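Bench log, entry 3. Co-assembly request; chain sequences pasted below exactly as received.
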Amino acid sequence: MKFLRAAMAASLLAACAGQTASAATGNVLFNGTITATCTLTVNSNGTMTVSSNLQSLSSHNAGGSAGSVQVDTTGGVSLSVDPVTVTTVPASDVTATTWTPTFATSGAQTIAETGTATPLTVPGTSTAAINLTGTKGGTNRFSAGGYQATVTVRCE
Amino acid sequence: MTKVRIFVAALAASLAPLAATAQSMTPMRGEVRAFADAFAVRIFPGNPYDQRIRVEVHVYDQDFQPIDAEISPRAFLLAGQASRPVLVVVPFDGATDRKVRICTESIPFPGEQTQIRAQICGKFFGHRRF
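Structure output for the full assembly:
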C-alpha cells in the first residue's frame, strides 16, 4: 500500500513537472493628448511720456514704462499685437498720430522687440513687455491733456 | 431652423471636453462636422486672476472680420480663478466649410493710460455634411 501511494505521488509530480505556472502579465497603456493652450495674465499696464520735441508719446521715453503680460503656453501658438484703433486724446489735439505697438518676450522664449506675429514654440512661462509709441510728423505736436490707448495682445 | 440649431448646439455641448480651470480659453483648436446650416462649439474662458473680470467672446473670420454668430453668453463677469462654458453657434452662410476664430477678450485693468486687452483666440474649422 505504501509503495502504491508513493508511486502515485511520484507519477503526479512527474506529470506536473513540465507545466508552467499559469500567472500572466499584461501591459496597461496610458495615452494623453495636450492641445495648444495659452494663458495671458496682464501684470501691469504701461505708461507713456512725451519726448522733449513733443512729437513722440511713448513708453520708451524717459519716465515711461512698458506694460507687462505673463504668457503661459504649451507652445504651438503665436503672439501678436493689434494695430491701435481706440484712443482718447485731448480736445486740443486735432492732428493725426501714428500709433505703433510692439512687444518683446523673455523667459521660456526670447523674442526681440517686434510688431509682427511671432510663433511661441517653447513651452513654459514667458514675460512679454508691451510698448506703445505715438508719433506726430511735420510740425504737429502732442498737446497738454490726457491720452489713453488700448493695445490688444493676442495669443492664438 | 432654430430647433435644428438648438439640437446641434446641444449635441456639441454634450460632446465637448471638460475644461480645466485657470485657462484663458480652452480648447484653442477644433474641427466640427455638422449636418445642419450651423455648427456649434463650446469653449471655456478662464480667469487666471484673483479678481473678478469682465469677459467678452467674439467670433471673427480669417481676416478678423466679425461674424454674426450666436454666443451665449456674449459678455459676463467671471470670478477669480473661475471658468465657465460659453456656447457658440456659427452659421455656414451657404458655405460647405468655414474657418473661424473664437476669441475671449478682457481688459483686466481698465481706466489707465495704456490699457492692455488680452485676447485669446482659438481656431475652429466647421464642415457641413448633407
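Chain A is about 10% helix and 40% strand. Chain A has a mean pLDDT of 90.
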